[in-house]
Amino acid sequence: MSGALLSPIRLRNGLVARNRVWLAPLTNQQSEADGVCSPAEQRWLERRAEGGFGVVETCAAHIAPDGQGFDGQLGVWGDHQLPRLRELAAGIARAGAIGLVQLYHGGVRSPSRLTGRRPWSASSFTEARPEFEVPRAADVRDIEAAIDAFEQAARRTAAAGFHGVELHGAHGYLFGQFLSSTMNQRTDEWGGSFANRARLIRTVARRVRAATPAGFLVGARISPEDFGYARGLDLDESLQLAAWLAEDGVDFLHVSLWDTTRNTAKRPDQHPIPLFRAALPADVPLVVAGNIWTPADAELQLERGADFVALGKVAILNPDWPLRAADPSYQPERGPLTPAQLHDLAISPTFVDYLRRFKTIVRDA
Ligand SMILES: Cc1cc2nc3c(=O)[nH]c(=O)nc-3n(C[C@H](O)[C@H](O)[C@H](O)COP(=O)(O)O)c2cc1C
User: Fold this and answer.
1) Rounded average pLDDT over 52-72
2) pLDDT band with cut points at 50, 70 and 90 for residue 2
3) Domain count, the chain
4) Range of the domain at 249
């Protein structure tokens, strides 16, 4: 192993991450009904900061009540959420990690059951799923309100004392619905060409950059190709988007790969990491996530050109992964674990219930 994984890295705004290990954003449903961060949610994240993660990122946090996509989702849309956000930011910083909030609007994935409103998206479209609610097509006021809400949420995140935000452009949520050539059928300046489909996330990136202090990190997460709810994406458009977001001033780009052992679907002989590295200026770090388990898996992604590795499932099961990764014989727990074992890893019963959908994480004794 080259050893780069555990060495510090200076970001271009001067902040130093103590290593290249990043806690991936993980929805955990532990917030209060009004979006306020709960003590259990704080404990889950602080425990990973104490375990040595260089960067600790929250779950997708909704920036407006009409953008909520999950029960118990963290919110950054109201000042009533600020005191507990302050405590969370302070806890992460106290343990030596860089703390980020992932900013999100669900678009069509924000059910009326949670928001009390019909969902809206780039266009009106249908999907063959029983629970699917046909969204109304956004009018310009919806788009402007969402841009303002992202800006206010970023200001609130900075006021709470976090080191930065990540705009959640991956996985087919509002930004992804606008980026999509299938979900976005608009004929105005917000649809059609890729420049128009990328306008929403780019406008928000520029607005958030301008609204927050120079030392505050502004990044973006994207999906490179179709997977799950992310549809209508094209690898070359995603590479163009990476370059554009760098022009817009993002401090890092996070590519959600789901499985870093795989090459791209469009060019099966090419791995996505060197392609995204080449699309970005040298001073914009590339973060990658997807099926990274061991320190050797992680080092391989750095050798391919990534600057950080984001860990999801393995971080749930191994809160001290970065502290233990220095040992070359370290074999992380792969699960599944019982609810009691997970509780000892600062995973509350609420989070355990959400994780039950991942059979490889939770098992009943
Ligand atoms: C329980 C769970 C919740 C997740 N929540 C989010 C989320 O809120 N935002 C996001 O961008 N990705 C989310 N993801 C995706 C992860 O950030 C990560 O990209 C993915 O799990 C692949 O990494 P892994 O193989 O290390 O788990 C979630 C994944 C899991 C398993």
Assistant:
1) 98
2) low
3) 1
4) 4-334
pLDDT band at 334 (very low <50, low <70, confident <90, very high): very high
**Bridge partners, residue 252, by sequence:** 219
Both tokens assigned to 249: 């001033």
pTM beyond 0.70 = yes
pLDDT digits (tens, 9 = 90+) for 111-135: 999 999 999 999 999 999 999 999 9
In a domain, 351, yes or no: no
**In-domain check, residue 342:** no
Does the beta carbon of 246 sit less than 6 angstroms from any atom of ligand 1?
A: no
Q: How far apart are CA 94 and CA 328, in angstroms?
A: 28
What tens digit of pLDDT does each residue of 289-325 get? 999 999 999 999 999 999 999 999 999 999 999 999 9
Is position 352 within any domain? no
Residue nearest to atom 28 of ligand 1 (CA): 26
Query: Looking at ligand 1, which atom is closest to the CA of residue 221?
Result: 11
Determine whether the shortest distance from the Cβ of 29 to ligand 1 is under 6 A.
no
CATH number of the domain residue 273 falls in = 3.20.20.70
Question: How close is the Cα of 360 to the center of ligand 1, in Å?
Answer: 14
Does the C-beta of 292 come closer than 6 Å to ligand 1? yes
Alpha-carbon distance of 289 to 145, in angstroms, equals 31
pLDDT confidence of 176, banded at 50, 70, 90? very high
Give distance in angstroms: CA of 250 to centre of ligand 1: 21
Beta bridge partners of 137: 121
With respect to residue 356, please indicate whether it lies within any of the assigned structural domains: no
Ligand 1 pocket check for 290: Cβ under 6 Å:
yes
57-77: b (≥16 Cβ within 10 Å) or e: bbbbbbbbbbbbbbebbbbbb
Which ligand 1 atom is at minimum distance from the Cα of 170? 11
Distance 327 CA to ligand 1 centre (A): 26
Nearest to 168 by CA among 89, 247, 62, 68: 62
> Residue whose CA is closest, atom 30 of ligand 1?
26
Name the pLDDT band for 329 (thresholds 50, 70, 90): confident
